[in-house]
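Troubleshooting entry. The earlier prediction with adenosine-5'-diphosphate gave an output that would not parse, so I re-checked the input for stray whitespace and re-submitted. Clean input:
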Amino acid sequence: MTNTESAPSAAKKASARKPAAKKDAPTVIEVRNPGTGQIVGTVPAQSADEVAATVRELRLYQPEWEAIGPDGRKEWLLKLQDWLIDNTEHLADVLQSETSKPRADALIDPSFGADLIGYYARRAAKFLADDHPSPHSPLARVKKLTTAYRPYPVVGVITPWNFPLAMPVMDVIPALAAGAAVVLKPSEVTPLSALELARGWREIGAPPVFEVVTGASETGAAVVGNADYIQFTGSTATGRKIAAACVERMIPYSLELGGKDPAIVLADADIDRAAHGIAFGGMFNAGQVCISVERVYVEAPVYDEFVAKLTANVKALRQGIDGRELKHDVGALANENQVDIVQRHVEEAVAAGAKVLTGGKRTGQGTFFEPTVLVDVDHSMSCVAEETFGPTLPVMKVADEAEAIRLANDSVYGLSASVWTGDKDRGERIARQLNAGAVNINDVFANLFSYALPMGGWGLSGVGARWGGANGVRKYCRQQAITKPIVPTLQKELFWYPYQNAKLLTALGAMRAAGARGLRRIDIPALLKLKGDNK
Ligand code: ADP
């Protein structure tokens, strides 16, 4: 085991805290470094009973967590932020051990996490403050109107393996900031970093409102079976199952799923920047990013220049296993399953006439696959139509902007996109025609580092969104409407029993006078009828 001495003991501690762990002897999941094949830790595959016991325990502590308010919670969240910063090197070690990421990539998770914590810890009070909307009609001015934001007691967060620390932080922190307790089920492929996060929470002495449960799909299903809100990130296939299970329980959910993000390079673009940006956007984390660039459309006049520059940039990438030194740009794929998908996409494309300009095969070591550029590809090929989630960049020539937009929108996914152009306003006009939850102009991933913006997918890329300023915490809350009288109240409202013509007419007439327009404000037939009744 390399650099992860504390991880299994953290796993043991985590499971020892759960009463049901003594009853069920859990089977064990081995965690491997995909670059070396070495086992780097073990975690229990927790049973549905254990998950239920964890959630029951979280429920006990949640009301107090809600009661201390956003300012009370801010103190704990900022302590966790300190802990992340102080433990960055160790967290990067653990993360590298279970992913084989280059050091540079591994260092991103803790820093990203600290940045996100700062945003939500400091702003939650403002975001969760009661709203006092103006009454819709003069008649409603007799009440003070309040919308209060009250957290779901227990939020279940289920995360994938591509960012083993950042993914949990992205959703756990806003939920905690909202006042919910959180049960996190990290991917069984990379559970060690999430266990470190839970260790950090305990180490700072925070209230026990955040727990990690480990295991595979059964453990995840138990989280869905017990929590009050589900935040899921992963494949569209699993997201669909989770949505169905949530509907069965009538609990809300938010899903961030697959993507096939297009990049559009226009003839007026800075081609050097586009070729650098798209190489990074396609190869970062070996392409295992939900919002990575997965297909590229280039206007004909700059196609040759762009392809040559992109290929040179991708060829220059250094691939291999890092220690603590920054030696490499691209690491391994998460597991053999990912290698199989990438290999199949490349082989099917080549068999159908595509050309590999660089890369195209596994390196022979661990689960490394060479950064790959493909041309002569089209939408009939799996490398363009299906999510690859690997280091491939299929590039297509288009006649003009209109063809680029049409092809970019020809996908069941709609997570994010990028447009590369010398005319930023043109870029924005194109952005508004793309079916994607986010569009970055002359950049990649920029929306991911802007928590004030929503991050969500359209189509099969998801339901709902994370972040988006206040919505990032309000989504974990139930909205409660409270009305409070602000004028002395009558013994009986006009509308209350027993119904009487005169009182009813006054009440309904007043509503009509306030809401309708022109002569319809006055209900003349009703007035005449009332006059008759009173004879
Ligand atoms: P991948 O991470 O390989 O894309 P998934 O989307 O299936 O695959 O996994 C994402 C997360 O969802 C992981 O933590 C996984 O254990 C969990 N998971 C898988 N199946 C289910 C399920 N039926 N219910 C709840 N969680 C699940």
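This one parsed fine. Confidence is low (pLDDT under 50) at residues 1-22.
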